[in-house]
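ok new one. same drill as before - structure tokens go in, u give me an amino acid for every spot. 281 of them this time. try not to just spam alanines like last time pls lmao
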């Protein structure tokens, strides 16, 4: 057999672009892998998903060129979708919530991201979004909510959107120089809920005096008197139900005397931060 009839062996390692790109194939794989070095000296590995050496070379060089171009623009060497950034952002918010280190509004931010940003933007790139894209999202969001959102609701969306951008910048997914369109924060003015009248308060407490004794199951007989006391506490102090009321411990309650009048002082921590509530005994 002549030498010309022999099949040429495929190279196992190829050095391209003056050694900045290395193309290789693992022993148990038919596909070529590549690693390339960026301007800061870091190496990154990725599969070319090609078995042909000619096609693998073209893909490896394209990946290298794109990564270097994105680095010059201040972008991450690999693009990240809104869904990927949202997953990281939501994980950080949940950590703050579990550790009680974040704002109570973190629950609202999570809802905005998971129920609206991810379903709409999904696999799109944050740095590629335009002003028109954001305006179209706001129209879609309003249709989903079936109402014109109030300013307070829009503020939650704006803060959640900013959290998403902050996460992307902090993780190096985009540069802080990349302009990302903002959400509109102007909406309908919220309406203050009317307060209970003295007659309504007395009617409610009179009803609950009887209601608390009508529990049939054991759990109802235990919970109903507690609920009655809980509602009376809210009425007498004006504290918010939920975060402020549910976090109260015995250490937050104390007696206080002022001008020969004894008061009960309760320290609460909620939406507006620490707050002292007191009422006459």
């Amino acid at each position: 057999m002549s030498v010309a009839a022999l099949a040429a062996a495929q190279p196992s390692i190829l050095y391209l672009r003056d050694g900045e790109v290395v193309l290789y194939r693992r022993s148990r794989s038919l596909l070529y892998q590549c690693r390339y070095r960026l301007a800061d000296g870091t190496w990154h590995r990725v599969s070319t998903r090609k078995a042909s050496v000619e096609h693998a070379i073209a893909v490896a060089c394209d990946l290298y060129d794109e990564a270097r171009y994105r680095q010059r623009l201040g972008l991450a060497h690999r693009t990240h979708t809104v869904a990927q950034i949202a997953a990281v952002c939501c994980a950080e918010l949940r950590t703050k919530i579990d550790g009680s280190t974040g704002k109570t509004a973190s629950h609202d931010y999570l809802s905005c991201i998971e129920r609206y940003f991810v379903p709409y933007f999904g696999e799109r790139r944050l740095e590629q979004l335009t002003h028109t894209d954001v305006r179209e999202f706001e129209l879609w969001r309003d249709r989903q909510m079936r109402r014109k959102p109030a300013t307070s609701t829009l503020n939650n969306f704006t803060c959640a959107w900013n959290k998403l951008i902050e996460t992307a910048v902090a993780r190096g997914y985009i540069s802080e120089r990349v302009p990302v369109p903002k959400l509109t924060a102007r909406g309908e003015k919220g309406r203050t809920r009317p307060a209970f009248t003295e007659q309504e308060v007395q009617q409610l407490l009179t009803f609950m005096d009887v209601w608390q004794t009508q529990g049939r199951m054991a759990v109802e007989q235990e919970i109903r008197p507690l609920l009655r006391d809980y509602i009376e506490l809210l009425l007498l102090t004006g504290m918010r139900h939920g975060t402020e009321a549910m976090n109260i411990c015995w250490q937050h309650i104390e007696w206080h005397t002022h001008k020969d009048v004894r008061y009960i002082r309760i320290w609460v921590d909620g939406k507006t931060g620490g707050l002292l509530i007191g009422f006459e005994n």
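Helices lie at 53-72, 82-98, 106-121, 131-145, 151-170, 198-211, 218-237, 243-246. and btw The CA atoms of residues 212 and 248 lie 23 Å apart.
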